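re: ur question from yesterday

yeah so i grabbed the chain u mentioned. its 124 aa long if i counted rite. heres the sequnce exactly as i have it in my notes:
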Amino acid sequence: MAKAKLSPIDRIRDMCLALPEAVEKPFEAHDAPAFRVRDKIFVMTHSEDGATVTLKAPPGAQHILVGDDPQRFFVPRYVGSKGWVGVNVTVAPDWDELRGLIEDSYRLIAPKRLAALLGGPEPL
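ran it thru and got these structure tokens back, copy pasting raw so excuse formatting
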């Protein structure tokens, strides 16, 4: 029997909630799923289906991602000036790349002790 294809929000939810102490709590401004660690947002979705997400990126990453692929990546309103990047997951999603971006965002937001539980390199 074929495994049911996960929706974008289900994939994003699985990636986020696999991280230490991550929880889902709606973002108050638009009641869409948001993912937090110690009540600090590391991933915001912009609709209930998860078609676009916003996450914190390491310094310089926003410029590179948006410049290389402006159909998939964008500078989000309000938090774009702080280095966050938007991802349109309806345009040729690369789920491994998104997982890496989510983990980077988590590492940048989470307390160092929790971020260290992920292992691997810290974002630049």
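noticed a couple things. The beta strands are 22-24, 34-37, 40-45, 52-56, 73-74, 84-88. also The two ends are 43 Å apart (CA to CA).
anyway ttyl
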